[in-house]
Design goal:
By secondary structure, the protein is mainly alpha-helical. Helix content is 58%, strand content 3%.
Length: 146
């Protein structure tokens, strides 16, 4: 007999009321946001806790990323958000740190995310900061020596 799934795996977050979703977000130390964001983030956390590892999405087709890089056109905000989410989820260690709300150094993310997803291109710090704040990802700046 294999291991039984926890009650968390059987919970259908999409059927919960907004108040219950906000309570679950607070329980896991995350900032409540839109209903769709809360449902998706709570489902990710539940999968992570049940399976014991970050669940990476299907790999993206590289042709589209290569075309976007070749054109060197500025990405729209939704497209940049999609690519940044894809990059975070593709790196198991980084995704785990995001899910466990570990603060990640801003300069590390600024250098690492474009390497993980070539379609991002040169990432502007203000775009990255906005993305991190919208997604509720904990980040920090290094201490500066005097």
């Amino acid at each position: 007999e294999g291991p039984r799934p926890s009650g968390l795996a059987e919970l259908d977050f999409a059927s919960l009321h907004d108040h219950a979703l906000r309570e679950w977000m607070n329980f896991f130390g995350m900032k409540p946001a839109s209903r769709s964001f809360m449902v998706s983030r709570l489902c990710e956390v539940a999968r992570f806790l049940v399976e014991g590892a970050a669940v990476a999405p299907k790999p993206a087709k590289r042709k589209r990323a290569a075309k976007a890089k070749a054109k060197a056109v500025a990405l729209s905000k939704p497209e940049l958000t999609r690519l940044l989410l894809q990059a975070v989820r593709a790196d198991t260690e980084l995704h785990e740190r995001v899910l466990t709300q570990d603060p990640i150094e801003f300069s590390e993310l600024l250098a690492r995310l474009p390497e993980l997803e070539p379609g991002i291109g040169k990432l502007r710090p203000d775009s990255l900061r906005e993305f991190l704040e919208e997604q509720g990802i904990q980040f920090c700046n290094p201490w500066r020596s005097k």
